[in-house]
Write a structure and sequence with these properties.
By secondary structure, this protein is α/β, with parallel strands linked by helices. Helix content is 43%, strand content 15%. The protein is built from 8 helices and 7 strands, in the order βαβαβαβαβαβααβα. A 7-stranded parallel sheet has the order 3-2-1-4-5-6-7, with helices on both faces.
């Protein structure tokens, strides 16, 4: 398997790189992140299975860097996982212009643009995975900008699935609940205490299972799928 995984320096992305290299002999994974040190550590651990590129996906040149590295390192792409993303615990009107633009670029624009740029390397049978959040089904009062960008990606992913189907490329939407990663700390707060977080390894396993079994949408844990129906009735969790 030849895979490109964004947000590979920690959390779901890191767990996914480890799982692919462990599960599929002869795989090659290209990890993408802004922080080089964690990528170096992952490379030392995974050896020939793993290569990386340091790139800021909020900028077009970062996306171009991923394309060049994928061409040189992989040649082709069987699996693209658009996992990179970030949020900030702020009200909409508390955000600076730069924060809003960067969040929209990383969480929404980059997955679509990167898929388009890598299209010549994708083939019939390839899979594109977009990591969203089950939180987009209800109002996240403390993470409204993050939720808005993920709703935009959710909408775009549905359209992307139809556009890529004639090419034989599948698209998988992944909707995690609260995950035990650095996300909330980096966003400026602790994870919601009322919700038990799932391990990133569990999400990584669910993603690969969905890819193997041809599933289009994955909610992890499964009960977060109830938010699709009852989301408007639920209290704000964060």
């Amino acid at each position: 398997m030849r895979a490109v995984v964004t947000g590979a320096s920690s959390g779901i992305g890191k767990a996914l790189c480890l799982e692919i290299c462990s599960r599929f002999s002869g795989s090659r994974v290209l990890g993408v992140a802004r922080r080089e040190e964690p990528l170096k550590e992952l490379s030392a651990k995974l050896g020939d299975c793993f290569d990386y590129v340091v790139a800021d996906l909020s900028e077009p040149r970062g996306l171009d860097a991923v394309l060049r590295k994928a061409q040189a390192s992989l040649g082709g792409v069987d699996l693209l996982v658009n996992n990179a993303g970030f949020g900030l615990y702020k009200g909409l009107l508390e955000h600076s212009d730069e924060e809003l633009l960067s969040m929209a670029a990383v969480n929404f624009v980059a997955p679509i643009s990167l898929t388009r740029k890598l299209l010549p390397l994708l083939h019939s049978g390839s899979v594109v995975v977009n990591v969203l959040t089950s939180g987009l089904h209800f109002l996240m009062l403390r993470l409204p900008a993050y939720g808005a960008t993920k709703i935009a990606l959710h909408y775009a992913t549905e359209a992307l699935r139809r556009e890529l189907k004639p090419r034989g490329i599948r698209v998988v939407s992944v909707y995690p609940g609260v995950v035990d990663t650095e996300f909330h700390r980096r966003a400026g707060a602790s994870p919601p205490s009322r919700v038990k977080p799932v391990k990133p390894e569990r999400v990584a396993e669910a993603i690969l299972e969905a890819v193997a079994k041809g599933r289009e949408r994955v909610y992890i844990p499964w009960y977060t799928s109830l938010a699709r129906v009852f989301g408007p009735l639920l209290p704000a969790l964060y």
